[in-house]
Known about the structure:
Elements: H1 4-28, H2 37-56, H3 63-84, H4 88-93, H5 95-104, H6 107-133, H7 140-193, E1 197-202, E2 207-210, H8 212-218, H9 222-225, H10 238-249, E3 254-261, E4 267-278, E5 284-293, H11 295-340, H12 347-371, E6 379-382, H13 383-393, H14 395-400, E7 404-408, E8 414-418, H15 420-437, E9 443-451, E10 454-461, H16 468-472, H17 489-499, E11 503-509, E12 513-521, E13 524-525
Parallel strand pairs: 7-9
Antiparallel strand pairs: 1-2, 1-5, 3-4, 4-5, 6-8, 8-13, 9-10, 10-12, 11-12
Amino acid sequence: METDKLIQSHNNFIILFFASVVIVQLFVLPFADYKLYWVFVLAGFLYTALLLILCRLNDRRYATSIRTLILFGANLYVFLLNFLYPDIPFLLYLLFPIIFAFVYNHKRTTIFLVSLTSFQLTILYFLFHDLYLTIDHSRLVAHYVFLLLMVLILTVLFVFRVGPEWKRLFVENRRKEEQLTSKDGYLHLFFEHAQDAIAVFSLDLRIITVNPAFETMYGWKKGECQGKKIQLYPDSELRGVVHRTERVKQGESFHLRTKEMRKDETLFDAEMTIAPIYNKQREIIAFSVIARDITDKLQAEKLKMDAIKLKAIGEMAASVAHEMRNPMTSVSGFIQMMNDDPANPYRHFTEIMGEEIKRINLISSEFLIFSKPNIKKTSEFDIEHALLEVINLFENEFQMRKIKCSIHLAEHPAYIFGNEESIKQVFINILRNAVEALSDRGVLQIKNQIIADQLSIEIYDNGSGMNNEALEQLFEPFYSTKEDSSGLGMVITKKIIYDHKGRIEVTSDPGTGTLVSLTFPIVKMNPLAC
């Protein structure tokens, strides 16, 4: 499509040609033998002057209107010439408006002018058929010379006046088209290769298009969801989605964290940007959604916060443990002296006090695990061997309560780096909780497997399970559902696992049981030991 600047350049060229033709007509006017031909030449002169004035305005907004005036004005001018002065050479002048239309490269106008000229030729033929046959052929030479002069003027103007400018404009337009094509190409590449999921929605919430990252993240193929309304969020987010959609239609944008839902109805945490899309008239015609799965990011943030929290607990624990142990040593010594005294009338009470002091010392010892996690010797050790030793400690209780314990070991023994006694303490804490949650004849399942360079240990019991409140506070200090517990067992467990660069996840439902998943990085495997 031509630009207004190029149309304006074409207008200037054709008007300049018109002016040249009028000047030539003025020179041949004294030799013309047509009646009142000077009136016709004057009309052409005034018409050309009007076009020159309009072009001098140099306003590209009117370039298209001036083009229409030039083409159809020229056609009318030549048609009237043929109508007033029927002559065979004048018929050829009807071709010039068509030639000008080809110069503009405007297809619809060219087709219309061809049709109009054909109709005009038909009219002229039926009106002046007999007159054309009686034309004095000796006068044709002058007309052909005039026609040849017009063509020569047209050629000279194009070559020396307009040709270079058109070439420059053509190159400039070609460059702009390439830039536009390149920009569209870059936008397409960005859309197709973006790592974030991108979807475009119509105002009635139908999906217009999605990128490959959306297909991967949500599980919906482009062909499955185009033109359809698909719920990409859980029911709990419905109210917020409706509210945001109405505000986006009013021109607002949002950047938020929310829950999203895949095709298989699994949920994930997402960071989203929602923004309206405008057309050239600044009307909202659609809106875009850019989503990023931040599940791993939130887990990393949670691990970081847990590490900070455990560090703070460790610093506090070190101070509390030392402050408690020093006075408790003295108190314990005096109580022991009182218990050794046969005349002590309060032996019953001092023995209870002694037991409670032992309990305080136990809690202090557990506190010290936070403050000095690396005081023990570290080395490479077989973690499955440590697990089997702990299971043997519970063997008698399993038999007594008829608890069925099944063990599935990994294909090869796996070694991790750390302190074996600390890891045994982790297994003792987890298995103790599992056994306490089990009723008689319960089921305990232990499964080890090697995944890449990680050892995964799953410990499942079909006991009483935990509700959401207990699960959320499981690793909080001093929280426990048992009366005789310090509430530090799982906190210490998590601390030890983190010190060994491992992870722990607990899932549970009341009445169905609890699954504890542990993951440790493997430093060495020994296939020959199997």
